[in-house]
Write a structure and sequence with these properties.
Length: 457
């Protein structure tokens, strides 16, 4: 067992007389072996920590999928009805506002994590996600509140954006810091599975409601149900996180945000550049690609969604496997290989997907599953290991979320514009190649860290 070692403890009775057979007694006990990063967790505790860390990611991406699935209905509910296209654009515009709030949320919640502890930051962030998600489900529509309806919807999405900005990064820091030293990437990859799981859960919820409800009922009130259910996930997250142990932290008089910006600028740039391939690759190949398949290949929406859902499901074991390999052979080899595959394979993979046959489309997307999944499998551990403990939450949240909020959030929009402007259906492939090249160069700037002792606060 990586987390524990069995120790033989010897007890001797000191009395002068001993009954026969009652001499030296050996007792087998298990004591934690304190390695780097708080290693020595019991298996049950490991599972609880992973569950507590991942559940916020489930809620975050569940909300992401549900909002996208019902964007048209949300637009009709909260915006004037003169132009149907304008309604959808307005709904997605509010969605984009939430993305732009992520860097701010990362700075705020990251500072909480560095000053008050990871658990406090995570409990706050999951509550700040769950409550607005629920309130979206009960918010009166435009017909009832008038202009106040879209304003309140915008405010709720902004609050969600703030909470999401610190949720993912703080959660992976929390679980990796408490993981055994030889399983940091593996445990971090398991935490990342919450994001993909949340997307699949949200899509499945939307599809289920669409299959059992009439179109009129779904349009009128059915779209609200998934947002109401988000509160259940949030409550479970708060309960899980409140009962997870965290070691006491040393008080620091310095502001982690000021310290990060003033003294660790180059590190922030490296973290931001490292995250480019993850952000652009994921949002193009698992969000935008559904629209691309319909537009470029003429594939039916249901088929495109099925292909994308299958690919995301396959990416779960890919991320975990690559995290496991990263723990054995290093972060740099796995991530450099992933970025190189993304650069070299982008055009061939898109060519396969452009053939219009579902089997070839799935094969092409599996190429991106391997490259993006391998990259994500090692990235969390590399970021945590490369950043000093006293600014870890703040620095990673800022570096990661600036890239995710700007490049990731706007990649589908840019890809749509490029395809239309250049009349080249392969334009998204060139975006992925550029992103892979940037992240490849960033990885070269990081030292290999998989065997280093993890610094703790």
């Amino acid at each position: 067992m990586a987390a524990h070692a069995g120790l033989l403890e010897r007890e001797e009775r000191l009395s002068g007389h001993r009954p026969e057979g009652q001499g030296v007694r050996l007792r087998l006990i298990f004591r934690p072996v304190r390695g780097s990063g708080g290693a020595g967790m019991e298996q049950g505790k490991t599972r609880r920590v992973i569950a507590a860390g991942a559940i916020g990611n489930v809620l975050e991406w569940y909300d992401f999928a549900v909002y996208g699935y019902f964007a048209a209905a949300i637009g009709r509910a909260f915006f004037p009805s003169e132009d149907a296209v304008a309604q959808v654009l307005a709904a997605f515009g509010i969605f984009a506002v939430g993305f732009l709030m992520r860097p701010i949320g990362g700075a705020v919640i990251g500072a909480i994590g560095d000053r008050l502890g990871r658990r406090a930051a995570l409990t706050f962030s999951v509550a700040a996600m769950a409550i607005p998600t629920f309130l979206v489900g009960v918010l009166p529509d435009y017909q009832t509140l008038g202009i106040a309806a879209p304003i309140l919807l915008t405010l709720l999405r902004m609050i969600q954006g703030l909470s999401v900005g610190g949720e993912y990064t703080t959660s992976i820091i929390f679980i990796i810091e408490q993981s055994p030293p030889d399983r940091r990437a593996f445990v971090g990859a398991l935490g990342c599975c919450g994001a993909v799981g949340g997307i699949l859960l949200g899509s499945a919820t939307g599809a289920l409601l669409a299959s059992v409800m009439s179109e009129q009922a779904l349009e009128s009130w059915g779209w609200r149900l998934p947002f109401l259910l988000g509160l259940v996930v949030g409550i479970a997250g708060v309960v899980l996180r409140r009962h997870v142990h965290e070691s006491p932290r040393k008080a620091s008089a310095k502001s982690p945000l000021v310290d990060t910006i003033r003294n660790h600028g180059p590190l922030l740039v490296k973290l931001a550049a490292l995250s480019v391939f993850n952000s652009v690759g994921f949002y193009l190949m698992f969000v935008y690609i559904v629209s691309w398949l319909q537009f470029a290949d003429g594939i039916a929406p249901a088929t495109a969604l099925a292909i994308n859902s299958t690919s995301m499901f396959v990416m779960l074991p890919v991320m975990v496997l690559m995290g496991w390999l990263s723990d054995r052979y290093g972060r740099r080899p796995v991530m450099l290989g992933a970025a190189a595959l993304g650069f070299v394979g982008a055009l061939p993979f898109f060519w396969l997907m452009h053939q219009g046959q579902p089997a070839l489309v799935l094969l092409g997307q599996f190429g991106f599953v391997l490259s993006v999944g391998a990259f994500i499998g090692g990235q969390p551990a590399l970021m945590v290991e490369a950043v000093p403990a006293e600014i870890r939450c703040t620095a990673i949240a800022l570096g990661y979320n600036v890239t995710l909020g700007v490049l990731g959030g706007f990649s589908p929009l840019v890809a749509t514009w490029l395809v239309h402007r250049t009349e080249n259906d392969y334009s998204p492939a060139f975006m992925i190649m550029a992103a892979a090249a940037i992240s490849f160069a960033a990885i070269l700037k990081f030292e290999e860290t998989y065997r280093l002792k993890l610094q703790t606060a």
